[in-house]
Amino acid sequence: MVSWKVLDSVEKLEEIISLSSTSEVDAVAIFKHSTRCSISSISLKRFELDYQVNPKIPMFFLDLLRFRPVSNLVASTFDVEHESPQLLVIKNGKCISHASHMEISADMLKIQSA
Q: Domain limits at 84?
């Protein structure tokens, strides 16, 4: 089961960037989800079913309809085009991998420890 942390503010995004650069984690993941989109719901459920718990990858959930400014900031901060649904993997303050729609996979989180 995914233990989601809510990404709902600029401060949380700054926390993600900082956390992604520590030796405490392998990376940080952000799942951007639209609560009004059936494809987003399918992608989320599929991801959650395939997800293998890795305590060294904190999981953040962004409801992009409720927190659109934060979603826009995520796109600009990590230089990725906004899509929904979207999974971003962050390491050392940079997006090292991202996917959207049915390309989202729990396998994206199989990251080798440094």
A: 4-109
pTM above 0.85, yes or no: yes
- Splitting the chain (114 residues) into consecutive groups of 10 residues, what average pLDDT does each group show? 95 97 94 94 95 93 96 96 94 95 91 50
Query: What angle in degrees, to the nearest 10, is found between the helix axes of 10-19 and 68-77?
Result: 30
Contact call for residues 19 and 28 (beta carbons, < 8 A): yes
Who contacts 15 (Cβ-Cβ below 8 Å, separation ≥6)? none
Query: Is 53 part of any domain?
Result: yes
CATH of the domain at 53: 3.40.30.10
* Token pair recorded at residue 36: 């009004």
